[in-house]
Design a protein that fits this description.
5-stranded antiparallel beta sheet, alpha+beta
Length: 265
């Protein structure tokens, strides 16, 4: 645990939000963690005290409060930058997808600039990410192997069908979401999520688990699915086609093929 505890203390020391929330002095915690005579039970007790004090909801609300203070001061740019980084990370941990946050930020701060009249305008963005959960149904097109393992899929509350019910058929037809040869529909119902993108990712993680388990017994044929999924918001009834999230590795700067080949050799 030594390395983890050192990193925790390092992060707490430079985290303005956490420091403002903790009721125990960080140096007192550090002294306990660095003392080789401190037992595991005592460390666990300290962590049990720290954890609820910097819980996600409290951390998010305090970050918003500190950001409101910082943006009112024109000389606080470094502080604003630091708090903003913390805030985005907190929103992601809270369950928002970066695919939701990026356009939300662009729309609020850049495309509707006339709505930004002063520091207090930032509250409008806080309202967008208040964090209320929504419920979705996700429908994927998957290969016919899922038909063979549909009884196992029920354990994951995943439904495999060759035809959708009348209501879902209407939604699928609107988006031209029709089966191809050797495909069936996979339905994940009642996904609770912050936005449509995180709902799709949550559903796909379930499918990935099923696929991995199935590969233990089906060695010749792999369970696979189409990247585009149909998501339906159960409250509004709004349908949306959502593609797979881009692998972060594809966003980084890459070597040219010739240079990559030289490096590889």
């Amino acid at each position: 645990l030594d390395h983890i505890l050192k990193e925790l203390i390092l992060n707490l020391r430079k985290d303005e939000v956490a420091k403002s929330l903790l009721t125990i002095k960080i140096e007192s915690i550090a002294n306990k963690f660095e003392n080789k005579d401190t037992g595991l039970q005592e460390i666990a007790t300290i962590l049990d005290i720290i954890y609820p004090q910097i819980g996600l909801r409290l951390y998010k609300e305090r970050t918003e409060k500190l950001l409101m203070e910082a943006v009112a001061e024109p000389k606080e740019k470094d502080r604003i930058r630091s708090l903003s980084r913390n805030y985005i990370t907190t929103l992601i941990n809270y369950g928002f997808s970066t695919r939701f946050l990026y356009p939300a930020v662009r729309m609020f701060f850049y495309m509707n600039k006339e709505n930004i009249t002063g520091p207090e305008s930032i509250e409008g963005f806080f309202n967008i990410v208040k964090g209320g959960n929504q419920k979705y149904t996700a429908i994927f097109r998957v290969n016919s192997l899922f038909e063979e393992i549909k009884d196992s899929c029920k354990v994951f509350k995943v439904e495999i069908v060759t035809e959708l019910n009348e209501k879902l058929t209407a939604s699928a037809n609107k988006k031209a979401f029709k089966l191809l040869d050797e495909e069936v529909y996979l339905i994940v119902n009642e996904i609770t999520s912050k936005d449509v993108f995180s709902a799709r990712d949550k559903a796909e993680r379930l499918i990935d688990q099923i696929s991995t388990l199935s590969s233990l017994f089906h060695h010749k044929e792999m369970a696979n699915w189409q990247p585009n999924a149909l998501l339906i918001n159960l409250a509004s009834g709004k349908e949306r086609m959502v593609s797979a999230s881009l692998n972060p590795m594809l966003m980084c700067a890459d070597s040219r093929k010739e240079n990559a080949a030289i490096k590889l050799r």
